[in-house]
Amino acid sequence: MLKLYYARNTCALASHIALEQAGADYEAVRVDFATNAQRSPEYLKINPKGRVPSLVTDRGILTETPAMLAFVAQSYPEAGLAPLDDAFAFAFAQVQAFNSYLCSTVHVAHAHRMRGTRWVDDEAAIAAMKKKVPQSVGACYDLIERKMLKQPWVMGGDYTICDPYLFTLAQWMEADGVDPARLPKLSDHRRRMSERAAVRKAIARELA
Amino acid sequence: MLKLYYARNTCALASHIALEQAGADYEAVRVDFATNAQRSPEYLKINPKGRVPSLVTDRGILTETPAMLAFVAQSYPEAGLAPLDDAFAFAFAQVQAFNSYLCSTVHVAHAHRMRGTRWVDDEAAIAAMKKKVPQSVGACYDLIERKMLKQPWVMGGDYTICDPYLFTLAQWMEADGVDPARLPKLSDHRRRMSERAAVRKAIARELA
After folding, report:
1. Minimal CA–CA distance to A44: which of B100, B162, B147, B109?
2. B133 FRET partner, CA 20 to 30 A, in B17, B110, B126, B182?
3. For A103, which of B75, B100, B146 is closest by C-beta distance?
4. What's the half-sphere exposure (Cβ side, CA atoms, 13 Å) at A195?
5. pTM exceeds 0.90 for this model
6. At what angle do helices A123-143 and B123-143 cross, to 10 degrees?
7. Residue A111 has pLDDT above 90, yes or no
8. A60: alpha, beta or left, given left = phi > 0 and alpha = psi -120 to 50?
9. Contact B103 A107 (CB under 8 A)
């Protein structure tokens, strides 16, 4: 059985939704950031980076959301969570490119609001970082709205592992100071995602 | 034929090396950052993010290094650049996890030295960011050295798409203020990479 280590209000929700959607046999284990459990010796044995998510499998431990999402899609091909049958590998690479943009640019821009100490020690610099988040995160979502997000799903007609990942990060938009009113396609995507049973179930479990 | 858009001294070198190693039929096209060519209307049509690398294929355009590397590995399976024959998808996910860490954590920590204006406007904050780069980048390489890098290659006995990517980012280590003397496994990896014909050829082309 798979074991997903997650914390509330983190990008782990994306993998949680994907596992739920895939019908995987898994257990969700909460890591309590309030007590800094992600830095405990026990958890560092699972993930030496001290972050969530982590996925314990029969073959070893996986980390990093894009890799975990691809693993779920490839392990449960009947769930149809990624284009795996393309002999040219291009469609799968497009999925990976979108998720790579989310992890390396969108999530990173967002992290400058709450996790500034990763990159500066100075209090004034941390405040300066927070100040720019509405602009830097907003620019990412403008680009996604204009150039990346097909409809109804990220890749067009087929729901893929891009959808729970985008949905998870976009949940933080208002707190990042980005007005969703200017992003009608993205708002529509969020609404449609929030109606899915797998999404509701994963969110309910994390908030319970 | 594939067309790789790159700029000197960027992470595009990783894809350049992988294409060369795969024996791909490709053309390498330089984007001149000195004239801000990555923001030109022509280039923004290729990559609306205004960044390198981009890979133009017969089926469309790909961006984001981890996705491009996976695409090269899957398109040229005879080059053996990734474990593609694992029915459990675990080995490929491990490759993706490593490359995801490079793009979302290592490269991002490094980018706070030269690209601070992505996340702050304030001059003092930019200086504060630069100051922490030796520590934040150094912590990444310490973790890679202690917990991730098998030998002789990142994944152990088999050279994969993790190797050119790690090599490319590690080339910036000294400028980031990280002393390679404390990283013997990583230093050995860099030396072994720099002796490979594909690496030499890609670097020579980029510096020509």
Report:
1. B147
2. B17
3. B100
4. 6
5. yes
6. 80
7. yes
8. left
9. no
